[in-house]
Request: fold
Amino acid sequence: MDSEAGGPQIIKVTPLQQMLASCTGAILTSLMVTPLDVVKIRLQAQNSPFSKGKCFVYSNGLMDHLCVCEEEGSKVWYKKPGCFRGTLDAFLKITRNEGIKSLWSGLPPTLVMAVPATVIYFTCYDQLTDLLRCKFGENQSQIPIVAGIVARFGAVTVISPLELIRTNMQSKKFSYKELHQFVSKRVSEDGWISLWRGWVPTVLRDVPFSAMYWYNYEVLKKWMCEKSGLYEPTFMISFTSGALSGSFAAVATLPFDVVKTQKQTQLWMYESHKISMPLHLSTWAIMKNIVAKNGFSGLFTGLIPRLIKIAPACAIMISTYEVGKAFFQKQNAQKQQYQ
Reply:
């Protein structure tokens, strides 16, 4: 929160400190939210067993990742047997029978993408916000929208090719030499743009989400601070503002989340079976097909599970990030006193 007239001087944090704060928030968020998705996937696998080559979406609270079933049998974590009667029963049985570490199954490989993406995103947002406020003034309400759009656009563009490569490595067990050959062949046949397949539906979901999230977060945070007579947000103000703004943005962008998941799955099916991708597989065509088959409500499939995942993830991430920045502000203020 930036100081207003009569408020205390705000000590800035450096980009490196912002990166450390966002990295800490990213790891903590993934550790707390991943068990919810692991249990959801185990319940899905119990109700409709995953066959070899089938893909599913794995979320660690920071990013959604397309995962491919590697083999038959029950060796992999998502195929382990378990007679679960519901979410709570699954939590208890997985912890008791497989150990508490099983609640974080599949997490480490996804963090390689998710943590850098989150660090880029949050650091860019804060740097852009500071830059725009210096140029256009403190009270411009459009600044969080612009900074959120640009930061998310950049993070998605950087990570999309890496996520495509990760999916192929996971499914085909590529060595690094084979991976280089795969990327080279793909670029030579389809051009560099082929590494960004699936980028459009991701941008259509994540960029509007980011714009709505940051605008509402800054408005709610400022309002709650004013009501409480504070210049800086407390942990609970950040947590509440993050949960509410994340929930609103999640509902508004759900149709694009449904389309993105379906497009990712279809792209993988065509690529894994070496079938040429049909021309009609566009974002808008998929959206029309969903409405034709399931009605307008089909675009809002999975609303409750998405809210259960997004609200705590946004709340934990932003409140941890704000606490981290506050810690570094104090450190910087103490250093200034002794200079």
